[in-house]
Amino acid sequence: MIHYDYLECYLLAHITYSKQTIKAYRSDLRQMKKNFVEWSVKSLQTYFDQLIQQYKPTTVMRRYHALMALGNELVRVKRLKVNPMKQVRPIVHQHIQQREHHPLEESIQTIRQINHPTYRVFFELISQTGLRFMEARLLSIEDIQFAKSTLLVRHGKGRRLRTVPLGEKLAHKLQAFLGGRTAGLVFRSIRGQAINEQQARDILCKQSLATRGRPLHPHDLRVSFATYLYQSGNCKLLEIQRLLGHSSSRTTEGYILSQETKLQQVIDALSA
Predict the structure, then answer these.
(1) What distance in Å separates the CA atoms of residue 146 and residue 150, rounded to the nearest whole number?
(2) In what order do the strands lie in the sheet with 150-153?
(3) CA-based nearest residue to 251, from 171, 163, 157
(4) Domains of the chain: residue spans and CATH
């Protein structure tokens, strides 16, 4: 079963994937190996045909996107000439998302009640720029252009660089937080390393439970940011796509949530 050892080492050494992503991708690789799946169109197509019959749509779609990303890596390092996943029939689940909506203004007010200054500024940055958790965690001071009120995102998915705007007050908070530091990670531990991933998530979740009675996760902030830009800021989908660093507008569309889920109310009225 070729390529498995390389991909395992690649994931263990990856610095921009979160721990949850790495854990999920490694699990996908183990399942692939367990089922003797080769990196060929025929083998992969048969594999996904079987998965569709056995697993929930969300699981199948997640695994599809995971193997697509890993196949792209094999092409990048020239272990494969082409990614066979690109010829596997796409997995489509036509489902109306009814995720809980977290209004951005409320989320920001919750964040501002976090006592720890590092995590408070960290999540303010995510909520007001739409950065991914790992993009913010690995942000360097050198990549913030205070004179232009912008920051450069170097650790985006797919090796895509992007520049995003900074709000004036947020820029001032960052400058005050840095306290004269001009190099290194923006958000660091006492030892100078990147902040602890799980501790950051736990602090946000606990503060939200204490303030609003429901959990708030880092990814919710990106979704709220996109929804706010679209509904309140009247921004175009393409503009939001570029700000979030998405390769496809279809991904961005999935981030736009309704202020209230009216579909369920309509269906309930029919069954009354």
Answers:
(1) 7
(2) 144-145, 150-153, 162-165
(3) 157
(4) 4-87 (1.10.150.130), 104-253 (1.10.443.10)
Q: Known catalytic residue: 255?
A: yes
219 among known catalytic residues? yes
55 catalytic per annotation: no
Instruction: Dump the DSSP string for 166-221.
Output: --HHHHHHHHHHHTT--SSBSSB-TTSSBPPHHHHHHHHHHHHHHHHSS---HHHH
Q: Among residues 132, 155, 173, 201, which one is catalytic?
A: 132
Residues 74-87: tens digit of each pLDDT:
999 999 999 999 99
From 46, 50, 58, select the one nearest 92 (Cα to Cα): 58
Tell me, letter by letter, the H, E, C secondary structure of 61-113.
Answer: HHHHHHHHHHHHHHHHCCCCCCCHHHHCCCCCCCCCCCCCCCCHHHHHHHHCC
Which pair of tokens denotes residue 145? 């252009």
| pLDDT > 90? residue 118 | yes
**pTM of structure:** 0.71
Q: Which residue is catalytic, options 154, 157, 188, 242?
A: 157
